[in-house]
Amino acid sequence: MDATPAKTAHNSRWSRDPVTDRGGAAVAVYPTERDIEMFTLLARFRYLPADYIHAFVGGSQKALSHRLNLLSRKPNLYLARPVQQRQRADANYRPLIYALDDRGARMLHERGLPLPPKSRHHNFVHELMIAQVTASIELGVRESGNVRLITWEEILGSERMPTATRQSANPMSVPVTYSFRGATHSVAVTADARPFGLERTIDGKRSYLFFPGIEADCGTEPIDAGDPERSSIAKKLCAYLAIAEQDLHRSHFGFPNFFIPFITTGAARAESMMALLERLTERGGSKLFLFKTCPAFTSPERPPPASGHMLTEPWQRVGFPPMALDR
């Protein structure tokens, strides 16, 4: 890390004013290899709190906090701190959330490293939940000695991937036709986050789990809307049930199996989703749907620590025993 001596900064944690050295000059830094690793993480996950970044890169948490602070202030501006995080009353007491800024993205581009997709950020709370869930799964894989993450890039390049899907405009989307309350719906189902798989080695034997992504629910849409044309959890469940029944996970992705993780904001809402699935399957349940909770950023509940808990702690199912993804 740069050895430029800096005086204690009294800037607001929300401003982009520079940290100054003892002579009053703004402290400029040039990204190190560890910084590039952090930029790459933020290109992949879009948003990450500082404690998640630390869980990935390690080292001194205090030194990392100082470094993130420098990288997000003038004249550096490699990182950004999304303004939406200030909406919480306790925002000053939570780990800061970071995103890649334009200068950081240019640094990745100059090195030929993957850049974040060029898309507008529509819902900070939702996208942050997706980032934390997928980052937790990846942290769990890193901590595990028996699980390997199968990335979307690896899936796309696999000989199992149908050519028509690989060459389609949006290979992550699964076209499906299903019935809901007497009406027929034809949609392209696109999960939150990219499809992925897990290769597990248990007692010397390999097994595989595949996922279309995750479904991150922040409680903004109804569980079961009275209007059959309105988006709802019920319609999502019916669409995924149809995908499984029609073996579209095989014909579209080449997946030999198919599990759909639903993450929602609290136990009561998760129980409502599971009760709905039980009704939709006429009390048969389904081994394919996995349910877990994660407090939304706007929730008064404290978030779980940055760890691999999404991989290592069991997911609930309807009509079947809980399922741990790492064993």
Descriptive notes:
There is one protein chain. The protein is of the alpha+beta class. It has 2 domains: 1-121, Arc Repressor Mutant, subunit A; 124-318, no CATH class. It is built from 11 helices and 12 strands. The protein has helices at 33-45, 50-57, 61-71, 102-110, 124-143, 152-157, 163-166, 233-245, 248-253, 267-280, 309-312; strands at residues 48-49, 79-80, 97-100, 147-150, 174-180, 183-189, 196-202, 205-211, 215-216, 260-264, 286-293, 316-318. Strands 9-10-11-12 form a 4-stranded mixed β-sheet. It has a 3-stranded antiparallel β-sheet with strand order 1-3-2. Helix 10 links the parallel strand 10 and strand 11. Helix 1 (33-45) crosses helix 4 and helix 8 packs across helix 10 (267-280). The chain is globular, with a radius of gyration of 22 Å. Residues 3-9 have low confidence and may be disordered.
| Backbone structural class | alpha+beta
Biggest sheet character: 4 strands, mixed
> pLDDT average, as an integer?
93
Using only CA atoms, what is the Rg? Answer: 22 Å
What is the N-to-C succession of helices and strands? HEHHEEHHEHHEEEEEHHEHEHE
What coarse outline follows from CA principal-axis ratios? globular
The helix count comes to: 11
Strand content: 15-25%
Distance between the ends:
39 Å
Helix content: 25-40%
Q: Give start-end ranges of low-pLDDT stretches.
A: 3-9
Biggest sheet: strands side by side, in what order? 9-10-11-12
Number of strands: 12
**Count of individual domains:** 2
